[in-house]
Amino acid sequence: MPAENAPSPLIQVEGLAVTFELAAHSWRWKPQVLHAVDGVSFEVCRGESLALVGESGSGKTTTGRALLGLYRPARGSVRFDGEEVSKLKGAELKRFRGRAQMIFQDPYASLNPRMKVGAIIAEPLRAHGAGSQRQRRERVQEMLRLVGLPPDASNRFPYAFSGGQRQRVGIARALALHPDFVVADEPVSALDVSVQAQVLNLLSDLREELSLTMLFIAHNLAVVRHIASRVAVMYLGQLVEVGSRDEVFSRPAHPYTQALLRAVPPPDPGAGWSGEKVSLRGEIPSPVSPPDGCRFHTRCPYAADICRSVVPEMRTFASGRKVACHFAVDANGGEFSSQATTPEARPDRGAGAGVENRAGDAGSGIETGPILS
């Protein structure tokens, strides 16, 4: 999309890092630092739905909560509509809370079992002093209708609902204040497969109807395919690939993205897998002591010496796709819009010689392999 036609960003994240200090088990030991998010940068444009995907432990939820100001960054910047979130206080912070809401992962734990559904949905309205008591009741009924629940649901307790219905209550509560931005933190992972489709369709319809800007967090790429316009892939606290939904699903450029897509069962098991299967070895490393160089090199079947010592830059393709891999190349001969690679990664230096991973066919547009001069 040409830059002049692109919508303005509502969320701007630059170099975001979030750390947690772990308690020492003994007075002789120094406290350890857990690097949950490390140097993440991206934007979410107005009206856009960006999916943040990756394995459990990748830092997705921490990133989403940092965007809402629930975690204070160790460094970096999170700007909402041009304002630095970490610097908001008092009335400005309260105004921001009304414009940015969250849909939690667990519909059972996120609802107060002692409150009726009507009071749960009305709680943010009361907290922000929105409307009179009659207007709040009307707003509750409007939200119940919007998420597909009957009017008398407002007089019931959460235990009287199924998991999918409880998640609808959580969605209604998040949207009660007409927010501009919503973080949906794996909103369907705790639901049955049959209910997942209903909730995904509901979120997609509400996003279109209310012109919501959304960060959709998930560990399953198949879940986000029908709701996201762009996809950001996260591994061990860092982004490894960002691109449009169609590009990422049809031509995954990073080996980790390829592995996530290959892990999704095909609709027709008899048809087999398309393309080369990329398998992952071992478990995701500890964020307390992340590996040097590319953090994915301990599990990547195509890792070379350069991957173990040099952190790959997030490079931008002509189409706007961003990939953090030493060996991602444009198969159609296009130019990168930034530095193509470090000299040490070129095959003539020996570091990447013999390493090759073709991610797609000849016309796919992007491959993973050695950068050639």
Provide the β-strand percentage band: 15-25%
The helix-and-strand class reads alpha/beta
Number of separate strands: 14
Task: Name the average pLDDT.
Answer: 84
Alpha-carbon Rg, integer: 22 Å
One letter per element, helices H and strands E, the order comes to EEEHEEHEHHHEHEHEEHHHEEEE
Q: What is the overall number of helices?
A: 10
- CATH homologous superfamily placement of the domain at 3-228: P-loop containing nucleotide triphosphate hydrolases
Going by CATH, the architecture of the domain at 3-228 would be 3-Layer(aba) Sandwich
Overall, the morphology is: globular
Give the distance, in angstroms, between the N- and C-terminal Cα atoms.
Answer: 28 Å
Give short descriptive properties of this protein:
373 residues; alpha/beta; Rossmann fold; 8-stranded mixed sheet; 4-stranded antiparallel sheet; globular; disordered C terminus
Summarize this structure briefly.
The chain has 373 residues and is of the alpha/beta class. The protein has helices at 60-67, 90-99, 117-127, 133-146, 163-175, 193-210, 221-224, 245-250, 255-262, 305-309, and strands spanning 9-22, 32-45, 49-53, 75-80, 83-84, 100-103, 181-185, 213-218, 230-235, 238-244, 315-316, 322-323, 328-329, 367-368. α4 crosses α5.
How would you describe what is shown here?
The protein has 373 residues and is α/β, with parallel strands linked by helices. The chain has a domain at 3-228: 3-Layer(aba) Sandwich (Rossmann fold), CATH 3.40.50.300. 26% of the residues lie in helices and 21% in strands. It contains 10 helices and 14 strands. The chain has helices spanning 60-67, 90-99, 117-127, 133-146, 163-175, 193-210, 221-224, 245-250, 255-262, 305-309; strands spanning 9-22, 32-45, 49-53, 75-80, 83-84, 100-103, 181-185, 213-218, 230-235, 238-244, 315-316, 322-323, 328-329, 367-368. The strands form 3 sheets. Strands 6-7-8-3-9-10-12-11 form an 8-stranded mixed beta sheet. A 4-stranded antiparallel beta sheet has the order 2-1-4-5. The longest helix is centred in the middle third of the chain and has 18 residues, at 193-210. The radius of gyration is 22 Å and the shape is globular.
